[in-house]
Amino acid sequence: MRFGILSLIGLIVGAFGAHFLLQDRGYVLISFLGWNVEMSVPGLALMFVFLYLVLRLGLRILRAPGQIGDALEAHRTRRSGSRLARGLIHMTEGDFRRGERLLTDRLKDNDAKVVNYLIAARAAEAQGSIERRDEWLRLAGASDPKAEIAVLLTQAELEIKRGEPGAALVTLARVEKKKPHLGGTLALRAEALLQLRDRAGIADILPELARAKLDPDRHANILARALEAMRSEQRFDRAALKAVWSPLPLALRRRPRLIRARALLLDRLGRGEEALKSVAAALKRDWDRELINAYGEIRSSDSLKQLQRAEAWLKQRPEDPALLIAAARLCIANELWGKARSYLETTLAIAPEPAAYVLYGELLERLGELDLAARAWRSGLRLTTREAGRLPAPKAPVVSEA
After folding, report:
1. 122 in a structural domain
2. Fewer Cβ neighbours under 10 Å: the N or C end of the chain?
3. Is residue 221 part of a domain?
4. Is residue 401 in some structural domain?
5. Residue 369's domain spans which residues?
6. CA torsion sign, 158 to 162 to 165 to 171?
7. What is the DSSP letter of 106?
8. Which H or E element spans position 1?
9. Mean pLDDT across 365-383
10. Rounded-to-integer distance, Cα 110 and Cα 340, Å
């Protein structure tokens, strides 16, 4: 549009100029250092146009090497981006070998080769090649010294996935020396300590981990697992739990799995009433299976009242498997054996699962029905191992034979 308007203006100006120049072409005299140049006005105009074109051509020639270099660089970048994209696609599809090859092909032309090396290390890890994994990590660190922290964190993450938590802790210690108090470092340390089942180490870092800046989902998952591990750590008392819970933002403190982990810790610390109150309040906001399971596991001073509340919920949700199991647990706590058996057989008929079969077997053992108890445990084991071909899991509860 702009070019069209300028062309139209040029035509109009040219037409008027040509009209006047045809009547009188004018006369121009240029005198310089004893040289005289005579020409008409149109000749002068043509000379200026010629000089302008020569100047533009010269500038183009001078800029050509740089422009060619930029074009080649853009082409290399596009090709590199294409290889990265295709490599990631193959990794997502599970073809790690081809993905690794694409990610590491012709990296000398790639300024961002550290990214390719890091992803290639993940591909090598997925194929079980520790030597190639470590070589790609080494090349990633050598290609960009500024990426050393990212390389070390990737190395620690892959070591944890490989089942090498001790090596990961050594790697993370190097990160801590260079850049302390990183949220990512804390999260990976917690993962390594959980893998090692080092409850004392987890207890030591929990307060700092609670204050870390992490993705909310990852943060909640790691904290919940850490708190679950603390249930068997006698050093972890009410004050330690408060030091972890208080700094958490409200959004995290409302996560069902975290509420469950805290409630079961409170129950272990003899504060069952406080635990029940938190779980019941959470269930009003979010009817969650993990919270229902926690409700059935907590032991309060009035377990009969606790059962009555569960049975009131059952009137509204009579086929909720988790609620039926929770009610069965509370019946066992109140020595209501027949009721507990009824609830468990109902839930096994609706949705058989290993936990229900285990609890059912324990109840039958307590009632002296040892053969049926063994059959219940075998049924639960079959569901756990999922050997559907040779040992199909039953769809109905184990019942006594007439």
Report:
1. no
2. C
3. no
4. yes
5. 313-402
6. negative
7. T
8. none
9. 91
10. 67
